[in-house]
Amino acid sequence: MNRASSKGFALPTVLLLLSVGLLLGLPALSDALLQERIAGNARASVIALQSAEAGAAEAVDSLRDESIAWPDPGVYSGAQLTQLTGLPSSPDDAAQHGAGLWWISSVSFTDSTAVITASGSLANTGARRSVRVEYARPYDSVIPLVFTDAIVDCEEDGECDPVDVVTLTESLRPSTLEAFHYSGQGTVNITPANATNGVVGASEVSLTGGIDMVVSGDVVMYVEGDFSLQGQSRLIIEEDSSLVIYIAGQVNAGGGSSIINHNTSPTLTRYNADGSTHQIPSFAIVSAYDASDGINLYGTSEITSIIYAPNTDVSVVGDSRLYGSVYAGSTNVTGGSSVEYDETLYDFLVPGYNPGAEPARLLSWHEWIE
Asked: Which residues contact residue 25 at a Cβ distance below 8 angstroms, ignoring those fewer than 6 apart?
């Protein structure tokens, strides 16, 4: 009787143990499936991100090697973007990257930067990642061209001083400044030998009473105060010589005085050590003056020159003729005076301004999940 009862108890015991084991194993199995799903989602997200990064890199490389021409400012997407760049612009025409796909959603261009939004996905999944990259084009691709016409009034264009004339002028200030005060008859000769570290420094220049200031060689002059030419005095630039004046004060030439540039062209050719050439101005005034009436040219002078005075006014009054270009806050030409343009100045840079060759660079990089 007891043996029969023991045999009947074994089956329920085994079934109970199996049930307990199954109950204990189900959470572990569920957890394993969840971990597998998380791992799969993470893998899909990583592939989507890598694909988006590949698309962004492709767009940046195309801009860097100029296989994509830099367009007018604006936001480009869809078919317009594909036509401009040749890159895929939607999931329907996405490019392959390993197991993933990428396309360029949009590119926002300014004159100097491009904001690229690239997207990536893994086919047959909902995984999608995006990358936004801000790219700055090489600095020498956006050199400001200011001498594009006889008269360019920057107040009408909005951006008045793309080269920061105050910093440019102050960077050339020599340690020693001399007061150039001359009156009466006679001649003052200015040559590169008068320079300190390549710049002739003047606290101010005042020529009156018939004095001649004669420039020979290539001279750069910094004037901290005013440059005044009055009373039959003359500023004379010899043939194949040049003068560039960087001035913080006013320029006043009038009262019977005259400026004579014996060069017929506003630019001169100079040779570099390697045999290549570069252009310099035969006569230029670069003004950092930031109040009204910064440059006043009166009388009957015929001047071959370029003038860069973005923060002040330039007046050409009387019967003066200026051959070259004037870039100023505003320009006033009255009487029989005129400013006549020389086409060779179109891509001529502000004297002393060196944009360098700063390379293209990434300004920012952001990633997110869609």
From this structure: none
